Amino acid sequence: MEATNSKAKSLTEVLVDRGVPDETIEELKKEKLDETTLCLMSDDELKKYLPSAGDRLFIKSYCSSISGSQQFPADDARRRKDNLLSKLRKKLGMKRDRHDSSDEDESTHKKLTGNKNAEKKERKVQFGWLHYSEGRYKQVRIQNGGGTRLMSIQKDAKKDLLMQEALKLFFPGGKSCKGRDSSFDMMLLNVSKQEVGSDETVADLYNTFKTPLLRLYLATKWKVESTEHEIVDLSSGDSESFIDPFENFESFDDLNVASEIEIGTSASIIHEACEDYTWNEPLVVQGDSGTPTIQFNTVQRDSGPPLNSTLREQVIIRRSNVVEDFIQICLDPNIMSKALDVRMIHMNGDVEVGEGDGVFRDALTEFWWAFSRYTNGNVYKVPIIRHDFGKEKWEAIARILLKGFKDTGYFPIMMAPAFMEECIFGIQSGDILESFMHYVSDFERDVLQKALADFPEDTDELLDIMDGYECKQIPKPENLVRLLQEIAHKELIQKPMFIVDCWRPVIAPIICHDLDQKRFWSLYTDLAPTVKKVTGLIKTHTELSGTEKVMLGYVKKYIRSLSVQDLQLFLRFCTGSDILICPSLYITFNQQDGFGRSPVAHTCTTTVEIPTTYESFAEFKNEFDEILKSNVWIMDMK
Question: What are the CB-based long-range contacts (under 8 Å, 24+) for 368-376?
Fold first, then answer.
């Protein structure tokens, strides 16, 4: 009743009648809150000015009568109302559609309700690639051209069309990293690994397996009549046929010493193959500088042409220019299908007479030692970009790596494994920080390892190192590992990425053919020479006499005294390679004395002749030290 009588009154008068303080009335005027605006305010907003609930109710009633409003809905009330109206309109519209489409089959209508996929003409299909290897089908990973691919296909598409789409995905242009599509027998398998029927459609497969996403597999297997795997060289448009480089990698039993391509040779085969050979007298010559150089006496047959002389292509490599000569030879992609007869030219310009696999191993070792000039790093190295090395030269270097690995098993383990893994697999599975710690200098590694173990209070040395690698953040205990991983990725992967892009198409299709990442990492352990491994290679052909046993003890004792670098020199002297790619190291003995006395290496058969005339270990050690220090070994066949 009071509200009705106050209609003629102004808002100010009503507020005064209600006993609202003058300060509040003035504040309402200052905020320009009149009858209309007060209607729009919520109870919480109005409470700021009118603490009393009775005052708020009265004022809202008064303002409502003045503005003609009957309600004061809040925003959330309006939203609820709008939502309800929207849902109601939608339901009314669906009912109206049902009544209008009286000609449509009622059962079909019910089926479509809530099943939007049934209205689509296409469905998603996921494709994978299975390849038969080692007695079973294995899924091909994405870095090898496989992985899973998703695409939309017509629901009525049958097996032939599905097979065509799978071939486009995994064999673009008819090629893949495993070979041409014509080299394989192929099947299309469903999710249960059963072959898809010729009349089955995508819709049928969805109805059969009831999966939210249909998955199919392209299964490939080498054709039975194929005698060799056709590997595509992605560095060019042409394809070449190669014998599988890993066919004999794990076993030496099936190899023949006369074969064109040898990846190691068993001890028994070496022994038998050398029965028809004659050993020549060792020769010690005086080099130009007065430093003794040792001529390697390789083996030769009593009669007949040299082994495989008609099948090998002779190449000449200068020791003084080994990198450039090797690159020029391997600029031709066809070099991968040729067996090489390497001849070395000595520093003085003379052609060395030695030939055979030992010379090739020595040439590869010489190349990678010289190639270190084009790298950065301490123990592990990474190639550096050069203005005079373009795409063709980097691809040629990749062929040198691949040729050495394919023909002899030589792999340059001086290259940082993180970098090589990126080149071969395109993905990192190992600890990149471990590679980086062997990439930095010994001093930097010591500082970084101490900081990782116990962050120092004095960070001057650490800051200098981080600044040298252009670190953009201040290292702290909580971010040091992350910063080092980022720097490692920059130094080992990002900087040489152009080289990675040049190497990967050449080496990845063949090396990753059967070599997975676990086996890749084991190469760095298996091929690295250690005292225990090298002494374990030593064998003899016959029962030893007392003197020969003493000399054999000298050899083993000498090996145990060598540093890592000297151990590599010793291994190269004996086998032509500075890494462990030969299964045995045979020791034989002679009676040489005087000026003609010296250890003699037959790198072809990984055999070392040791004179039995040394009177003490010190005498033996001094003579062998001179050989390794000279670092100039001429191969001879006299």
Answer: 368/412, 368/414, 369/578, 370/322, 370/323, 371/323, 371/397, 371/412, 372/414, 373/323, 374/323, 375/415, 376/439, 376/491
